[in-house]
Design brief:
Helices cover 31% and strands 24% of the residues. With 233 residues, the chain is an alpha/beta fold.
Amino acid sequence: MNQREYALIVAGGKGTRIKSNLPKQFIELNGKPVLLYTLEAFYNYSDEISVVLVLPEEDFKIWGVICKKFNFTKPVILQKGGETRFQSVKNGLDKIEGDGLVAIHDGVRPLVSADLIGASFRLASVQGSAIASVRLKESIRMTDQDTTSAVDRSKFRLIQTPQTFDVQLIKKAYQMKEDMSLTDDASVAEKAGHKISLFEGRYENIKITTAEDLIVVEALLKSIGSKPKHRAG
C-alpha cells in the first residue's frame, strides 16, 4: 500500500460531564495529558503519518503550553474546530490536500493501538472505509413508552474510532448539509451512499466521557507501563 496516510484527531471536549474546568483532552493521567497519549499512538504506528489536530481556537494557547512543557515536537497541523463535531471534522478535512487515506479519531481515545490503526488503513485501502467496532457484552432491550422487549445483541455493534476512509470519499460526503442524526463519520459516509465496512476494535479503546472512564483509562495505562501499545510490525 503506497497511499499517503493521514490522521485527523478531533479534540473539542469541554469536560462538563466529568465536572472538570479543564477540557478532558488536556487532563493529565499518570503525568501526561490524554491528548498526548492519543497523538503518540499514531506516531508509534508510523513516523510518516500526517496528523491534523482539530481544537477549539480558545485551546490553541493551552496546546502550545503543553507542547513546551512535555517537549512534544512532532509535526502537527493545527486547525480550528467548529460548533459541532460535524463542523470540526469538515474543517479538519479541509487541511488535507490530494489523495490518500485518513483515520478520523477521537482525541480522548488514548488507548488506541498501532495494530488497530494499521488494520484500519489496510481495510480502508481495499474497501474505501474501515470502522472500528466491538460486540456487545451485555443483554440489551428496546423500550417503547411503558413496555420493553429483548433484542438479539449479536445483530448490533458498538462503534469506536478510528473511522478510516479514502480521503476523497469522505471529503465529498462532508459536503452534505449537517444533520443531527449524523453522529459519526460512518453515518455521514453512509448517508452519502457509501457502504460501510466494520472491523474488530478493542474493548480497551475507551472514549473518555465520564469521571469513571478516567479511572479506568488511568488504570489501563499503568498496566501497560504508561505507554501506547507497540508499533505494528
